[in-house]
Amino acid sequence: MDARNKELIYDLGEAGAAALKEAGRISPREQRTSGAWWHQYLTSISTAQIELATIERDDLNYIPQSKILERADVPLRFRTRHGDLIPDALFGLEYILDKQPLYRFFALEADRATEPISSKDQSRKSLKKMFQQYNEWIGDGRYKEHLNLTAPLLLLFVSTTKERMMSAMKVARAFPELPVFFGVRGGDGRCEEALGFVGS
Q1: Cα(154)–Cα(199) distance, rounded to whole angstroms?
Q2: Cα 43 to the chain's mean position, in Å?
Q3: Confidence at residue 3, expressed as pLDDT on a 0 to 100 scale
Q4: Number of domains in the chain
Q5: pLDDT tens digit at each of 200 positions of the chain
Q6: Which among 138, 113, 141 is positioned nearest to 127, based on CA atoms?
Q7: Distance separating the N- and C-terminal Cα atoms of the chain
Q8: Of 106, 107, 132, 161, which residue is the least packed, with the fewest Cβ within 10 Å?
Q9: What pLDDT shows up at residue 39?
Q10: pTM (2 decimals)?
């Protein structure tokens, strides 16, 4: 808080990012999410909560985006018939079951209801267009070649209100081959409710 009781946010600047890269603390494959700070916050708090939960368990390991992209030697950008797709984040989980590793990967979309449900303008971002892109990339299995993966990939869609989430679920039902898990995260960053799963 400053002297006027306004919230102050300390963000990573260019000099700080350069210092972290020089120290080897940031991978060259690391890419910050685009858009407003609150969108970046929603993305970061969602992945951080998952990663912190894995630290408390011996049978679960978090695989960061940088490791996935380094292994596949690709950027965080994938071409689809509906335009380039750039997930807000990408991560994986390694499950240890009977001493054998099993894997599942996730593409995260952090939604703050700043885009329309659909749009006649094909160049404009919308929920429908986003699900079309993910349906091609995940539902059609194209991610396997892009990321050099054989394990399943799931879309994790996080929004800030239940109403927006219900609208997104209605749109996603038009793409039955696309596996999507929906959750609501409150303004304080806490996961309020897991609303369910749509798709195969």
Answers
A1: 10
A2: 7
A3: 59
A4: 1
A5: 555 666 556 666 677 767 777 776 666 555 555 567 777 888 888 899 899 999 989 999 999 999 999 999 999 999 999 899 999 999 999 999 988 999 999 999 999 888 888 888 877 889 999 999 999 999 999 999 999 999 999 999 999 888 888 999 999 999 999 999 988 876 554 555 555 667 65
A6: 113
A7: 47
A8: 161
A9: 78
A10: 0.82
Residue 13 lies in a domain: no
Task: Please check whether residue 154 lies inside any domain of the structure.
Answer: yes
CB-facing half-sphere around the CA of 40: CA atoms within 13 A: 11
Identify the domain containing residue 164 by its residue range: 33-198
Identify whether 4 is part of a domain: no
| Angle value at C-alpha 50, between 46 and 56, nearest 5 degrees | 150
Contact status, residue 191 vs residue 183, Cβ threshold 8 Å:
yes
User: Under a CB-based contact definition with an 8 Å cutoff, are residues 18 and 91 in contact?
Assistant: no
Whether 87 contacts 76, CB under 8 Å: yes
Q: Is the separation of the CB atoms in 69 and 149 below 8 Å?
A: no
- Inside any domain, residue 8: no
